[in-house]
Amino acid sequence: MTAFEKDTTNNQNLSLLIQLRWLAVVGQVVTIFLASSWFKISLPLLEMGSVLVFLVLLNIVSIWRHQRLESVTNAELFFEMLLDVAALTVQLHLSGGASNPFISLYLLQVSLACVLLETWSAWTIAAAAAAGFVWLTTVFRPLALPDASAQDRFSLFLQGAFVCFVLTASLLVLFITRITRNLRARDAHLATLRQISAEEDHIVRMGLLASGAAHELGTPLATLSVILNDWSHMRPFRTNADLADELAEMQNQLDRCKRIVSGILMSSGEARGEGTVRTTAAAFFDELVAEWQASRSPRMLDYSNALTQGEAIISDPALKQVIFNVFDNALEASPNWLGVSVRSTGTEFVLTVRDAGPGFAGEILETFGKPYRSTKNRPGGGLGLFLVVNVVRKLGGRVKAENGATGACVTLNLPLKLLSDGGAHGA
User: Fold this and answer.
1) Taking the domains of the chain in order of start, what are their residue ranges?
2) Calpha distance 370→252 (Å, rounded)
3) Cβ distance 388 to 330 under 8 Å?
4) Are 359 and 392 a contacting pair, CB within 8 Å?
């Protein structure tokens, strides 16, 4: 567990401890009032009231601490719980010592310490409670009980013990369940962080493989380019129109392969932001859609751009490749029609891609963005959307997939701040 996660959990536990202390103050006020007015037991109200004032002041300081600072250490929780044990000991000292049925409230303090504190701290609280119990057997102010028989006094003791049992049991159930919920939330968050770390490590390995493959492909592509250039000057190719056209098409496809390799090297290279270009959001998406449309030639593409010309961003090849991936998946599912729209909410760009295909399968939607989750039944299936989700997440955005009335819909929310020139784009 990281220090940050531990501090966050301790902060939540301090909040629970504050609530418990308020309940303790209210409970003591009610108990003192009933003992004095209902059972006619003479109590040192001034001294016991001073302890209650101390608990209230301690809670005020704890609330200030909880609101002003982000982290709470185990030592701070331990010190506050030690003060709670001391306050309970003083109250019991003023009201009969170990013979007071409410002495079992020590068990509540020890139980909470076992859940909230580290092992050494919990043992120290247990030792402090035990020492307080032993001290109260010899040093205490006897209760001035009204004249009553021994049986009546024993009945009064049993009533107090029952009230203490109900109070302790209720508080244990209330607060330990809430503390356990905090721990479960922390564990779930840690599991999510581990999953993200594993996915990012997977992306790094894929990037290294892609970069290595791109470097290896560079030499044969350069060799082919030289050969095609030599052929273009040979008489058979210059005099035969059909061969010249085929040679030109081969050269175009070779140039495209070289651009793809260059894009891979820029997108997975050593420094993110290499090859980036300052532009506007409207121009970026217009050029992106035009480039994709020219290379894929979809039968029908409905494109809507509601962006203004003044929103400046930095064009990144990695982001372009991610969006191309979404377009390619939509085109594969729906060759006859594709709908693309982009708009701005003021803080982020919203790119929506719709198709008229069969939509996502239920298990794909449940595990959307996980690697190798695909219905295409081919090696590497599902990696495209996996990269889309993770690259967008690294940009601070999010990806949403759903099925519409006539097909699937994928929405990318891209934060303007991180794509702008003044953002953390180059981080």
Assistant:
1) 3-146, 199-267, 277-419
2) 35
3) no
4) no
Alpha-carbon distance of 274 to 324, in angstroms, equals 19
Most confident of 225-239, 260-274, 349-363, 371-385: 349-363
- CA quadruple 98, 103, 107, 109: dihedral, nearest 10: -110
The C-alpha atoms of residue 16 and residue 9 are separated, in whole angstroms, by 11
Cα dihedral 68, 69, 70, 75 sign: negative
Task: Supply the DSSP symbol for 42.
Answer: B
pLDDT the model gives residue 180:
79
CA dist., res. 409 & res. 402, Å (int): 5
Strand 408-415 and strand 398-403: the pairing is antiparallel
Structural tokens at position 364: 């794909």
% of the chain surpassing 90 pLDDT: 18
Closest residue by Cα to residue 10 from 192, 125, 179, 191: 179
C-alpha 290/C-alpha 320 separation (Å) is: 12
What letter represents residue 116's amino acid?
L
Return the CATH fold of 277-419.
Answer: Heat Shock Protein 90 (3.30.565)
pLDDT the model gives residue 426 = 41
pLDDT digit string (tens) for 76-114? 889 999 999 999 999 999 988 888 888 888 988 898 888
Q: pTM to 2 decimals? A: 0.48
Q: Give 408's DSSP letter.
A: E
At residue 303, the pLDDT reads 94
The answer to whether the beta carbons of residues 358 and 333 sit under 8 Å apart is: yes
What average pLDDT does the segment 307-312 reach? 77
Transcribe 1-67 into DSSP letters: --HHHHHHHHHHHHHHHHHHHHHHHHHHHHHHHHHHHTS--B--HHHHHHHHHHHHHHHHHHHHHHH
